[in-house]
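Hi there. Long-time user, first ticket. I'm pasting a complex I've been working with (about 471 residues overall). I'd like to know whether the download I got is complete or cut off, because the file seemed smaller than I expected. Thanks.
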Amino acid sequence: MKKNDIQNRMFVEIKNKEIFKQVQQYSFEYLENIFDRNVYPTEEALNNLSKFDEELPISSTKAEKVLEQLNQNGSPATTATLGGRYFGFVCGSALPVGLAAKNLGTYWDQAPAMNVLSPIGSKLESVVEKWLIQLFNLPKDSSAGFVSGTSTANLCGLAAARYRILKKNSWDINQKGLYNAPKIRIVTGKQVHSTVLKAIGILGLGQESIEWVDVDNQGRIIPESIPALDENTILILQAGNVNSGAFDDFETICTKAQKADSWVHIDGAFGLWTGAVEELKHLTQGIEKANSWAVDGHKTLNTPYDCGIILCEDTEAMTASLHMSGSYIIESKQRDGMFYTPEMSRRARVIELWAIMKYLGKEGIDNMVLTMHQRAKQFSNEISKVKGFYVDNDIVFNQVIVRCDNDEITERVLNKIQNLGECWLGGSVWLGNKVMRVSICSWATTENDISLSVKSFEKAFELEITNANNG
Ligand SMILES: *Cc1c(COP(=O)(O)O)cnc(C)c1O
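Hi, the file is complete. Here it is re-exported in full:
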């Protein structure tokens, strides 16, 4: 091949648009089938993944061939998280307008590190920052960083906390590091999410130094069990326990923390959105007294992946922890996104976040999130009536914890549900028992999806009984 053959070919690909049309056709077919398809890939689809096991080709492959292989062997091996019967982990679907906006954003290929690098990315980040602060009723001067998810958002919030506490002790963490630094206390509940622990590890704060607080049978911190707080303490709370969906008592705890001048970080990956819902607002009462909040767009709000947000009322602490500079950096009077995130270059995920918030409006967000809650209650009601199943949590939001009579049966039934392919969910451990964890956070989940899934649970249980009797 001559040196510039590939370059010429790429100009042709742009000009005749065939490969873009090809992919558009694939995506239309995908969307048409995803709501009725097997929720988990079939055996055959999984086996076909071995077709990707090849050496890096020496010579160039035609673009349409590359895309054809991706579609043929890739599409069937996706999980139908986009549909209405995927209840695994805490995932979220993606709104059509979000997919479409992301698609446009893909062609723009923007990196909103600096305003000068992407004026549109920068503008949308400023607008959405303001919208989020209003929606969650947070302090007006708070700042937002647009990151890949709550894992990173937790890291940023705790980095800001670390900076502020040490600064108050006349210790510049960026310059001096943690060796010989004044001690930072970390207080959190025994049900804290593992990504918070990861952040504590990365930040050098040491998981061993955590002062653990007891939780109740829903996973909420027991306020009376919190040790005496002080100005060198980071207190980490939770809006939405990853199993039960429970919320800490922010009003009581944050008031206490404020008096002690502690830093409060709230992990609200999926739960923070209840703050935007009239009927669920009580769950997040008092969060405005905290200092930093981590939340995902890609879970409850149903933005496409990946989309997380760190919100922080102490802009100086946040930007000082994440700041970088270089002789080639052009700072502007508008927003330079990289001062609010660990990365310099990153995709403009705010595009689809903006599109979804604009599309839904306050009422639409309220409606979508409340519907998830109602479907969770429906699931809980229906499954409680089926012989052999028990619900182990209060349905405060979107999570339902289900189990059978003992760990062995629970595990086998869960396995059968997964194999039936009509819905998908994972397992967990709750109050010492193996459980099945149903997370309802897709805009697409209908009442019928819930009933179909409950039937699938029933079917799996009957198969289990038959098997047990036969052998
Ligand atoms: C999902 C989740 C996280 C991690 O968020 P990612 O977006 O997956 O990085 C953290 N905390 C809670 C409570 C979660 O549900």
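A couple of notes from our side: Residues 90, 149-151, 193, 195, 240, 242, 267, 269-270, 296, 308 surround pyridoxal-5'-phosphate (CB under 6 Å). The radius of gyration is 24 Å.
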